[in-house]
Each structure stands twice: as C-alpha cells, then as structure tokens.
Amino acid sequence: MLIELLRERRSIRKFEDRPVEREKLDLLIEAALRAPSSMGRAPWRFVAVTERETIEQLATAKPHGAAFLKGAPLVIAVCADPQEVDVWVEDASIAALVLHLEAHDLGLGSCWVQTRLRDHDERQTAAEYVAAVLGLAAGLTVEAMVGIGYAAEAKPGHPASSLSYDKVFFEQYGRQRDAGA
Ligand SMILES: Cc1cc2nc3c(=O)[nH]c(=O)nc-3n(C[C@H](O)[C@H](O)[C@H](O)COP(=O)(O)O)c2cc1C
What we know:
Blueprint: H1 2-8, H2 22-33, E1 44-49, H3 52-58, E2 74-80, H4 88-105, E3 109-114, H5 126-134, E4 141-149
Antiparallel strand pairs: 1-2, 2-4, 3-4
Bound molecules: flavin mononucleotide (FMN).
C-alpha cells in the first residue's frame, strides 16, 4: 500500500558506490512519464545522468544543498518548457515526486535538489548553470534534480506523533474534527 511506502520514505543523501541497474532506471523513467500533468500536456523533459564528470558538475549547481549529488550514481534532471504549459512548475514537481517515490519502491534512496529560483553564483542562476552543463535546448529550464542510488544511510520514517495534524481542518479553516466524526 502506498501509505506503507510513505510511512517509510525519507530523503537519502548518502549512497553506496554501486550503479543503478538499467532495469530500475527504465522503471524510474516509465514512472516519471506516467505522472499526471495539467491537460495531459506533459511539458517535462528528463535528463538521466550517470557519467561521473557530469554528476560532479551538477553537484556544484548551487552553494548549498546540491553537494551530496557527488556521491549519487544517478541524477535525473527534471526539466520543462515553460512555454508549453503555464503550470509547468506543478507538472515538473509532481514528476520529481513520482521519481522519488518510485525510487523508494525499487529499494533505492533519493533526494530532491531544488534548482528553480536558486543561484549558482552571483552571475548565473542554478538553472542556467545546469542547462549549460546538460546542453539543454533553448527554452527549456531545470526545475529540480533528483539524486538516486542505493542508500548508504538508514533513516526511520517520521513517527505518526510528528505529523502536523494541527494544520488540518474540517469543513472550515480553524475547525477541528468533531468528536466521533
Ligand atoms: C521542493 C523541495 C526542495 C528540496 N530541496 C532540497 C535541496 O536542494 N537539497 C537537499 O538536500 N534536499 C532538498 N529537499 C529535501 C528536503 O530537505 C526533505 O524532503 C525534508 O528535509 C524532509 O525530509 P524527508 O524527505 O527525509 O522527510 C527538498 C525537498 C523538496 C520537496
């Protein structure tokens, strides 16, 4: 059940020095291509990277939060053409989440690297930098990257007691669930 996967799921940033098998990569790609998108317009492009040199360049996409990619055997850049759909951010985010969940289901760990709205340095955005590293076609941008591999760290799922039920309301904002409902 999906809820079981969600109860276990964590972001994994440490990976074994072991490649992701071709069959698993194929399933990850299939999963991403099955992601829902607004009007079914699928504005995404995915770039799956396994070459070490390129991954090391992606790991410097931004000053904070990308360095762990260096140890990932697989990085999938989730790109999109903003001209194709106005809600491309939502579409790309959903595809990135599908990759994250499918990775877990395949026994792999993964973690999102925010690329949109982040800077590489004072002259270039992270998206511009990654676009140059990957040779993206004009008009495409990178929304996020997902680092994927066999986990070399164990993290427990978040306990039920940590869930923010105080942010959930019923019928009207601010209203708690009626006793017995
Ligand atoms: C939109 C988004 C952006 C994120 N950006 C990064 C990032 O740039 N680098 C990183 O290491 N983790 C990133 N994460 C992972 C979060 O830090 C992580 O999901 C959060 O700390 C909760 O931990 P958990 O996924 O293990 O439950 C991102 C997650 C999301 C959903």
